[in-house]
Amino acid sequence: MTDLVIAVHAAPSNEPKSSTRSLLAFRYAQAALALGHQLQQVFFYQAGVLHARVDSQQQLSPIAAEWAQLSREHGFDLVVCSTVVESDYQLQAEQLDAAFKLGGLTEFSAAVAKAERLVQF
Q1: Which InterPro entries match (predicted)?
Q2: Beta carbons of 118 and 112 less than 8 angstroms apart
């Protein structure tokens, strides 16, 4: 089976100006895992970092909650680009869900180097 890394550049599907790429990435991950592939990491970049943002009631968007659950079930990391979180969206750590880890392109590059395939959405 194949070791995969998925990069999500799209905002969660309930965000303004979002596309269905967020949902498509999630469905792809589900299908790959069901077929026995290993998911090493999902890296959220650009507007994708908004998956980690919680609202005023500390709730994730529905698709982000699904990512968190899938991550717990299958043991892969959800990594959001810390530079984009801080520079582009001015989010603080308390505005992010604990299921998502702050990381950078170094962590992403290391995961890609170990994986057999990178899929971007």
Answers
A1: DsrEFH-like (IPR027396), Sulphur_relay_DsrE/F-like (IPR003787)
A2: yes
HEC secondary structure over 36-60: CCEEEEEEECHHHHHHHECCCCCCC
Cβ contact 95:58 at 8 Å: no
Over 90: is that where the pLDDT of 20 sits? no
pLDDT higher than threshold 80 for residue 77: yes
Q: Which of 10, 81, 91, 112 is catalytic?
A: 81
| pLDDT one-digit tens code per residue, 84-115 | 999 999 999 889 999 999 999 999 999 999 99
Nearest to 13 by CA among 30, 26, 31, 28: 26
| Closest CA relative to residue 79, chosen from 42, 25, 46 | 42
Q: What is the mean pLDDT of the chain?
A: 93
For residue 27, pLDDT over 70 is answered with yes
Element (H, E) at 32: helix 21-34
Q: Is 121 a catalytic residue?
A: no
Domain ranges within the chain, ordered by starting residue: 3-120
